[in-house]
Amino acid sequence: QVQLVESGGGLVQAGDSLKLSCALSGRSISSYVMDWFRQAPGKEREFAATISWSGDVTHYANSVKGRFTISRDNAKNTVYLQMNSLKSEDTAVYYCRAKSGLDEFWGQGTQVTVSS
Q1: Which of 76, 75, 68, 63 is nearest to 51 (CA)?
Q2: What distance in Å separates the CA atoms of residue 99 and residue 43, rounded to the nearest whole number?
Q3: If you placed Cys at 38, which of 6, 82, 84, 92 could pair as Cys (CB 3.0 to 4.6 Å)?
């Protein structure tokens, strides 16, 4: 069974840092482009960051560029999202996605709450 499980969310203060993890089981992560999305209360899910299968290409939404860093460890079958200088507007459920061609898997999400 293929499963993506996010972890690392929590309640932090504005300006703090948090590191999210997303572990893939049942498949090798090395074949997948990995993305982080987020969904704030009352808003649509939005793209945050993506990383190529090899890890050498990354892309960020303007809202997180310069503050968030996506990385991956294919040996651990895990992708990460390092979030620095958190703002109240970063409050959301964060989801990871694995995508390769028509194959697409989503995690269940992890809540990040930033208090100002």
Answers
A1: 68
A2: 23
A3: 92
What mean pLDDT comes out for the span 104-108?
A: 96
Query: Taken in order 48, 11, 67, 43, is the CA torsion positive or negative?
Result: positive
What does the alpha-carbon distance between residue 95 and residue 56 come to, in Å, rounded to a whole number?
Answer: 21
Tokens standing for 2? Answer: 């293929």
Which residues contact residue 60 at a Cβ distance below 8 angstroms, ignoring those fewer than 6 apart? 48, 49, 68, 70
pLDDT band at 84; cut points 50, 70, 90: very high
Average pLDDT, the chain: 97
Nearest in space to 109 (alpha carbons), one of 6, 4, 33, 22: 6
Roughly how many angstroms between the first and final C-alpha of the chain, as a whole number?
Answer: 40
